[in-house]
User: Fold subtilisin-like protease SBT1.7 from Salix koriyanagi.
Amino acid sequence: MKMERQAMKGKDLNLRLQLIATVLVLCLCYTCEVAEGKSQRTTKKTYIVHMDMSKMAATYEDHLQWYDSSLKSVSESADMLYTYSSIIHGFSTRLTQEEAELLEKQSGILSVLPEMIYKLHTTHSPEFLGLGSSDFVVPASASSSEVIVGVLDTGVWPEIKSFDDTGLGPVPSTWKGTCEAGKNFNSSSCNRKLIGAQYFSKGYEAAFGPIDETMESKSPRDDDGHGTHTATTAAGSVVSGASLFGYAFGTARGMAPQARVAAYKVCWLGGCFSSDILAGMEKAVADGVNVISMSIGGGISDYNRDTVAIGAFRAVAQGILVSCSAGNSGPSPGSLTNVAPWITTVGAGTLDRDFPAYVSLGNGKNYSGISLYSGKPLSDSLVPLVYAGNVSNSTSGNLCMTGTLVPSQVAGKIVICDRGSNSRVQKGLVVKDSGALGMILANTELYGEELVADAHVLPTSTVGQRAADAIKNYAFTDPKPTATIASGGTKLGVEPSPVLAAFSSRGPNLVTPEVLKPDLIAPGVNILAGWTGAAGPSGLTRDTRHVSFNIISGTSMSCPHVSGLAALIKGAHQDWSAAAIKSALMTTAYATYKNGENILDVATGQPSTPFDFGAGHVNPMAALDPGLVYDASVDDYLSFFCALNYTAADIKQITNEDFTCDSSKKYSLGDLNYPSFSVPLETASGKGGGAGVTSTVKYTRTLTNVGAPATYKLSMTSKTQSVKISVEPESLSFAKENEKKSYTVTFTATSMPSGTSSFAHLEWSDGKHVVGSPIAFSWT
Assistant:
């Protein structure tokens, strides 16, 4: 009994100790959670503070004094990073979450937005677009060299020939900007081509600390290459004999070679910070640019919470076209960024040019891939072939990540690496460091048949999924698989072209489904343009090769194509608004090949849709003379905001105008004067019942004549029987230039299952001009 009692006491003691331990753990967890929550609220972050100038008290001598007083009321230690006076009225600063919340409650504060970190959407294209043909002539006008393209990116490398100012006249008198000196950059680095260069780093440095000038230049100098590439794509000077290691040899030129370039460095090693971007946009507007090109993007949010959308609106309101990349998150649906209707959102397509690299196998089979390798080639002799997943010390060895390959098993061989996770060129470096002779980079199902060329550091061929599967099957089944790789140089006349890039981000527009995005596509795959002297063509830190031109891909490359073409149109039509230029580019774009089939999607091998390419592929020759345009003013966008049920405060955050929606007026998103149509419709399970139920939607548009007097007649093609389309009137007669005529489209739709989509196309033509608009239907 005594022993039993002792055992019971022992059990009691153990239970008590377990209970105490559990309580201590729970208390510790609670304490950690509280501490973590407290830490989050006391950690300082950058915020952009938007002020309502109409609420500034008369007691303040100026707005800066008001800003300082407002800031000091919540934080004695905080300083302003930037003050903004045109894009928005306000400032950026470092605050705790608690301080930011207190500040936002004050009178006169429109919004306090947390800093967003955006990322980069990382010769022959003028000919492909028809700009190099002998019969193409830009309308004679000295104003073509008066147009200024502002590029917000990683800066510029001013010494390359693409910024040569030979033949250009004086800097435009409208220019008010500067050439800012800094690390490795002098005020004399600018000229009559590169007329301005500035950098904006306060937001970046507030988050990461002072810039390490051994790693990057605290100046407008481009240490990355991305900014130089985008700037020269948009408006680089004509350079003969341009190439990357002999690939794409020919004459390189920007889309608007007579236009001037102003560079605003807002992107750094740690990303592109919204406070810096906003400061760059504000300076670009004040400096007098005509086009803003931004190959950057982040997430999506309501327009009054989107820093880039707000900045772009203020620029567009002053007649400046803002072109942005759609993003590189395709082929996933709804992966777009930069979806505001006043932004020109650009997806990516291919050129008719390729850089083949051939794979020959020991079984006699041959496959074609792509590469920009330029070093010592492999011999014609076949060498052993291995799959990375079988010669690795890691479960993810197939991806050729750093340190995952076993050198003794890959030395002297060609290694098959699957695409994904780390960069394509990084895989090549890993393979080379392991002693291998070459690499076959294999597309998986995610990448399909998309082939993107890279300046690899060893003999490489990137192959599509079908070829990759065949090569891997050979490597798995043959007892002694062998292969070799050979370069095929540059191949022109590739068909079909263009095709939609798999990486190009897709619609529908998740913020406003009634606005079709992207707006259009332009060349964005394997584009040759200027490059920095600070980085090799692969972008790897160990790549010591120096080039003046590089070939890279992304919607980052398609965006400046459209920016430069917008500058070209602006030079020919100085009085056109940003919306008119955008309309000209969209309504003249093409979406089909000569055989009538839609542009193919390389991700699927099937025809793409307006959710992928918007209005289609840009056609600059036609865009210079569109006949009619869909123009839009600030008033149009105010009605758009009312249709979104925005409050007066919401509207002021974007427009800086005091405007209250008319409660007696019915506003419709379908009435925004947009060059394309997106029509969300009710599903079979939506309002009003089941299948077979019909709904009617009306959209109104207004066309402005920018050509000679003419009568335009309607034509309509549709791929759905579920929507009946009627247009009133079906003929529009214009007696003079700038005359406006409106029409209404009525869509009568039958309910369909959720996720269904279909498409139609509306055109107005006078026999010479074709003014086209895609129509996208989606049942949600």
About this structure: The chain has 17 helices and 39 strands. The chain has a mean pLDDT of 91.
